[in-house]
Amino acid sequence: MSTSKKTDMKKIYLILFLFVGLGAGLSSCKKDFLNLTPLDQISDPEFWKTDQDLELYMNGLYSVLPGWNLAGAGGHPLLDAGTDMAITVGLFLGEKNRLDGAINIPSSGGGWSWTNVRNVNYFLANSERVKSGALKDHYIGEAYFFRAFNYFNLLKQFGDLPIVKSPLTVKDESALFGPRSSRTEVVNFILSDLDLAVTKLKKKSEVPAQRISRDVALLFKSRVALYEGTWEKYHQNDAFKGTTDGKAFLTAAANAAKAVMDGAIYKLTTGNPNQVYYELFNQVNLNSDPEIMLWRGYSSALQYNNALSAWPNGSGFTQDMVNLYLCTDGLPIGVSPLYRGDKDIRNVVINRDPRLVQTVMNPGDPITISLKNDTTKYILPMLGGAQTGPTGYESQKFRRPQLDPTTGVASGEVAYIIFRYAEALLNYAEAKAELGELTQADVDLTINRLRARVGMPNMTIASIRTDPNWPDYGYALSNALKEIRRERAVELMVEGFRRDDIMRWAAHKLIIGKRPKGAFYSDELKKAFPNLAVDAGNFLDPYRTSLVGPGSTWGFDPAKHYLLPIPINEMTLNPAIKQNPGY
Amino acid sequence: MCNKFKLVCFTIKNSSMRKTKLLAYCLMVSAILLLSVSVSAQKKVSGTVLDATSNSPLAGATISLKNGTGTSITRSDGKFEIAAPAGKTVLTVSFVGYQSQDIPVGANESNLTISMTRTGDMGEVVVIGYGTKKKVDLTGAISTVTAKDIESRPVANAQQALQGLVPNLNISVSNAGGEPGGGMNMSIRGLSSFSGSTAPFVLVDNIPMDINSINPADIETITVLKDAASSAIYGARAAYGVILITTKSGKSGKEKMNVSLQTNMALSRPVQYPRLVDPMTFALVSNDAAKNIGNAPWYNQDALDRLAKNIAKPGSAPEMFGNTDGQTWNIGAMGLGAAAVTDWYDVLFKDFSSRQKYNLSVSGASEKIDYYLSGGWYKEDGLLRYGNESFNRYNFDGKVNAQATKWAKVGVLFKYNSGLQEFPWQQDLGRGRIYDMMSKLKPTMPAKYPGTDMWTQESRILEWGAMRDNTLNTQMILAPRITLEPIKGWVTNVEFNYTNSNNRREYIAKQYSWMKPNGELAPGVAKVATSYRPRLSTDNYMSPNIYSTYAKSFGKHNLSIMAGYQQEKFKYFSLNADALYLLSDNVPSVTTAVGTKTVDDGQGHWATQSGFGRLLYDFSDKYLLEANFRADASSRFEPGKQWGYFPSVSAGWVASKEKFYPLKDVVNYMKIRGSLGELGNQSVSNYLYIPTMGINQTSFLFSGQRLWSVGAPNISSVNLTWEKVRTLDFGADLAFFKRRLSVTYDWYQSFTTDLVGPGPAVPALLGTAVPRENAGEIRTRGFDLELKWKDRIGNVYFEIGGNLANNISQVMAYNNPTQILSTFRQGQILGELWGYRTDGLFQTAEEITKWPNQSFLWSGRWNTGDLKYLDLDNNGVVNNGKNTVVDPGDMRILGNERPQYLYGINGNVSWKGLELSFFFQGVGKQDLYITEILNGNVFRGPANGPLHMMVYSQHLDYWRDASSPLGANPNAYYAKPYSVFDGDNSKNYGRPVDRYLPSGAYCRLKNLRLGYTIPQKLINKVQIKGANIYFSGENLFIINKFKLLDPEQTAGSAGDGRIYPLSKAFSLGLNVNF
């Protein structure tokens, strides 16, 4: 190496420049080289500016509303499957577990989820940051509705609950590790949220279609109050009781339902008595239906289809369900001369409340109506497979025979009804009857409107005929209430009310020691589907070995199964939380 | 002189090389040390080339003149002659598998003896972070792999080639399974985290890259840095180890251009795919499962009769019926209840599929310039007969280096790769579900509609053609390099790395048809639902590096110091579009779709800044010391928490160099090493400290539209900072029996502290995930062992080696005062499985009533054939107590699902031109927990819902009583199967139980290769320098206990049959050098 000192210095300068110029320069020319904020997400401080932000937030909360299983789920069991009214087998056999008492104590989860409540609380804690706006109050009203809605879901499962009104952080130890409030306090909290919702929400005509409006909150209030009113009344002497006799809740239920009725924004859908009921439930779009207060839609165009088209969805009605329907003379089958027996599935619907034939598939009903208007007809129920209908009574309700014009197969777009006006009528009648205040005028306003729609004779309180088959609820009940409960079951059949009704009525007598049965195993059925299990009376007996109770009867334990168990981990992490009775 | 784009490249004049022994110098330095040189002044130079280990002659070595023209090749006795100009000259000696050497030849020299050292020997130089080091001077835990170890294997990528080669570099099959172009999971030394990736940091020529983007044929060496001290120089990214890959480059001093061609053609087929039992047995098992749940039989008498007829005489009875509506088929779930006889394996899988590999490279050098250009093409077809799956990868690697001035060198690296994966896809379910759907096909399901040549919808074959998932990944790397050496020993490197990665993925759903019973064709996808869904993403990575090294020797003291600066910035941007309703299936595009269109993007960035330095010192290659320091700042932490400081130190002592060393004859070489260092990890999500609100479309339709919605943010994770990994390592390198046996052993202990994980468990009332915090500490202890025996018997040279590694990770600290088992806890061994012990199956109803209450596990009915769980705490109830360590009820630790004792065994034998090599890879111990719902479908067979039910021969060992047509089997392995999705089956399979934790240990012959080097005299005539032809087999056989599934493939979602099977491949290859 023979380089002069001068050149050496030049090189050293060059290297020093590289270090200083490149190294330091690269980093310091951009002061915020390391302070990087998200490029595709909105951070909380940038949100909460206008009431459009409030709408954006609320849109997401609607996902908690109930709906059908989506396409790919293999079907959707009937909503009351797993009760005395309907059952399911195969994929959805587990639907029976709640009333069968087949309830495992989980380590975590098991329905004890507070995400939905937190989502609302986060909204309520921040919505005031939005200065003002025409719809600001309305969205706050929606939030109170959703908090009530989420709390009611938890209440039905667990009874007593911790009440949280703000979005918790891990530092909120007193709330996180606090005890549960009594169910009465919880329901008062729900109702106060709903009262706030009612004052803030706009009317149906003032908000876009399919958004929560004031009357929805009112109807929901009557549902919650009726639930708790009857619960506290009929569970007064067991481990699940509240702290009142339920009267105040029943009054609230009646008042809220009446407010919906008096508002006159909704009314029953009317039409041909032999079609109107069936057609109410298999629509794709219910925006213009006067009875529908809130519904959930599906769309082939958006590839958002439901799985309801997989009929019979492994589900079927029980013989007990069929027996519930009155004859067209307004008399129960036990006393009506019009009754044609149950030995032939064609005959069971004859001379019966038209809602029966519009709820149950009957030979000759269309199964599919193709795009060319060719109709295939229902001949016999599908039996004998684990995915077919187990009972011989398949559902007509929610079944849409018109094939989807875009796919040429059954529609996966049938709407899910979340709230409809008929419930307000039934809630009002039942609450009034429970309070002992039911008048014939009340009946005419409610039950008789529902009956009139399908051409059934009126109910008159003074002359209710004794039904030898009235169910034994295990306690005394007025004849009017017995018939109101029948009417409720019939009108709201497989709309998801039956299990809740059994729970709040403390009606375990309806199921204990029993097993749901299907249709009479006629020679015709036997020929088509041989070797099916039957009971002593030759009725189909699909649950012959499926139920947990003695002799394969419902395994429901009235000392335990009215509520679900609290997950083990929750009690370990928070000793202030105690297990529900019986577990 | 600088022979390639090494991370540290010193430009040094020849004349100054002889005496300097600066530690950080390149390859040539060590090569020279191994030479014994004698000089003569003749016009002809002659000599002998020997293998340094065995002293046996090497035939076929290339001798060339460094500063002139002329090449010679050694004869079979190792002798050569070459004409050389008078005066001093330099010879370059090279041979495949050996270190190349430059040999200065004096004016008067003949009968040179040249000892060639095999790569992998002790004399080797290895690439370390920002530099190279002689292997003898290493003080950390470092393993190396050379081209020879991975070449000639019919594998797609470097990961597959590396599996099992390096102890404690754990490479396992990922969820992609064996799909063409699929990657694998990789981790070093079992280092664990509560979250985030523990994948090692991979650098190719000092550029961060995906290891699978590299063409294995371009790889020259791979260095795996395992302990903290070795990887410390990479600081922020290196917490879980570093893999340094150096690609080939032009050999300086070789005037001639070298052209190398490599080809490989392979045939492959699934290595293991379970085969269904015969249709009649399947039907009877299905009926048993239906009976057990109280259902009607899946196959009624009529179906069984038809099935029997079709088995006796195919086509003699109807295979399937339409439902009465004429719209749908009555075939239960995927053919359950139908009466066809179909061997789905034969229908769906090719007999053989093909793989092809081509690589062409041109390299060479002149005095001022060296270059390497390489192009490769790899094509692999999938295993499915009708799936049209394929993977095509193109690689280009280019390097040009110029000596600009005596003290400055400039160069540029250019890398390009593109990989195209083409697969069938399933709308809603994705690509991965194809094998899931296949596992559901019943042997009684017809493959074609009755009386037609049209595939049934369930076979999915028509759907596969219509639904496609095409992914094109391209990456371009541009990396200019400047090396300056103004003063001897002081070298400054300026490197700039720019990487641009683009990913284009398109999902296409076209129309296809299936046939209704009434003969009409029905669309499998509605016209409105046909779609084109492109996803485009582009990532940019920019990183300037500047570092400067000064090396100096004072007598026997060798010293080198280095300091540097690095910054990185990474930015990603993606655009995703969904466009529905294709006007024409032939032209799927966003523009030609006329339905709903949506678009969204993803953007983000992160950046780091780092300063680093290193001190190397050794005394006479005997006492060795290395110290590193690195400071890193990352944008992923909030301002104020961004900087982390990571020091490390390591030292070594070559005892065998001491004069007093007494064991020279037994232990020929002994080095003892120790290192301690700390590293940081920033592998947490970007922006965790900022509360962000997710944007989604609603699932609730408002007037037929999905509206946008904004959701609540999670609780932001404030105060997060660096995870730190502190590793202590002790190692020894030993050689025995005249260096024929070499042993490397390392013991290590790593403490990962400030682990980023979920904060302590709180009640679910919180309603969201607990924020992440620097919450805990994990200790990992383990060892790596490598053995190698090299020897020869006469003309037969052989080498056998093995490696073994194990590690155990334990949580040392975690805030979990209740010791609840739902989260981490102090004392927990990672991978441990808590579950129940069992005592066989119930045989009588009486036994059930007398047995402790099991209703906690299953509140429904217990039957004969169900599992008997042990009430270990004798309280009459089988439960999990409080689900804590203190009160786990009847739960116990049953085993550990992490693979342990991973090993590899390799060897080769050569005789004349023939070479046979083999490579086994295996896992010594592992408990497979694959019975859980969702993942355990294949394991549980008939104990599934009807759709997921399958029956392989192993499943026939299930409990049944005498009422089964298959006869009673009271002492069965499998419990009573129920034909329901989870429900009753969760009694027996819902949780870990000792009975169903089969061993995952296996030993697999990964590769067997027979090669032949064509004799030089044959090919010299056709101007070929060397040619090698070989046959190679991949995954040829396996030894394992658990036969139902490939034990390599049972992890993760493998157990449910969703993942692509690995293949067995047979290949023929040719390597030619011109």
Brief summary of the model shown:
Chain A is mainly alpha-helical.
What is the beta-strand fraction of chain B? 35-45%
Oligomeric state, counting identical vs distinct chains:
heterodimer
Number of strands of chain A: 7
Q: Total strand count of chain B, please? A: 49
Strand pairing plus helix content of chain B: what structural class?
mainly beta
Please tell me what the overall shape of chain B is: globular
Mean pLDDT of chain B, to the nearest integer, reads: 86
What is the mean predicted local confidence, pLDDT of chain A? 92
Strand content of chain A: under 5%
Number of helices of chain B: 13
Largest beta-sheet characterization of chain A: 2 strands, antiparallel
Helix content of chain A: 25-40%
Distance between the termini of chain A: 90 Å
Low confidence ranges of chain B:
1-42
